[in-house]
Design brief:
Blueprint lengths: L9 H24 L6 H8 L3 H7 L3 H24 L5 H16 L2 H15 L1 H10 L1 H14 L8 H19 L6 H18 L6
Helix pairs in contact: 1-2, 1-4, 1-6, 4-5, 4-6, 5-8, 5-9, 5-10, 6-7, 8-9, 9-10
């Protein structure tokens, strides 16, 4: 039985709009200026809210940054699922997901905030927790499933998944500023990922 979606009050709707405005403003400021140079006042001004409204939603600048990283990772995971779901088998879903993940990693906000700045701002452990709740979690699950059904020969599927994901993130950094060569280099990067993945693959029984 499907329960009806609760109707939000006007106050709840306004709170959601305020939070969304702050995240959108933060995305612009953090991407162009970096975390260290950004300030709460400018973010609040661009979002057209008061400082009081800012601190009602976020404890400080770091809390806002973390919320933005989570939203970017969630969006990346959604894009991966959307591209992988139509593929006929797990192997094809992994490669479709890898291509979608690389596309996400190449977006300026994701590249700057998630890959470059987040480890220093949030710490490696927290970044790992967030990534494994979203895009890396999908890759880990897929690699684990392939090992379980005998299609992947690896002792540690978690490590394999983490290393493949790290390769994709590194490729996104190398592609930054590639200009007209970007698409060609992107395809080369995906071919490398495919070869690494194939090195662990087992033929069907």
């Amino acid at each position: 039985m499907n329960l009806p979606t609760p109707i939000k009050t006007r106050r709840e709707e306004y709170a959601d709009q305020t939070r969304s405005a702050l995240l959108a403003a933060a995305r612009t400021i953090f991407t162009t200026q970096g975390f260290a140079q950004a300030n709460v006042g400018e973010i609040a001004e661009i979002a057209r809210v008061t400082r009081g409204a800012f601190y009602h939603h976020f404890e400080d600048k770091q809390a806002l940054f973390e919320a933005l990283v989570v939203s970017l990772q969630a969006a990346a995971a959604q894009q991966i699922r959307a591209h992988a779901v139509a593929e006929p088998n797990v192997e094809a879903r992994v490669m479709a997901g890898a291509a979608a993940f690389l596309d996400s990693c190449m977006e300026p906000a994701y590249r700057r905030l998630v890959i470059q700045d987040a480890p220093a701002v949030l710490g490696e452990r927290r970044c790992r927790e967030i990534s494994e709740a979203y895009p890396y979690g999908l890759l880990i699950a897929a690699v684990t499933e392939l090992r379980k059904v005998g299609r992947l020969d690896c002792e540690n599927p978690y490590l394999v998944a983490r290393m493949i994901g790290s390769m994709i993130c590194e490729a996104a950094l190398l592609l930054d500023g590639a200009g007209s060569s970007e698409e060609e280099l992107k395809q080369q990067a995906l071919a490398i990922v495919a070869r690494v993945f194939a090195a662990f693959s087992c033929p069907p029984a």
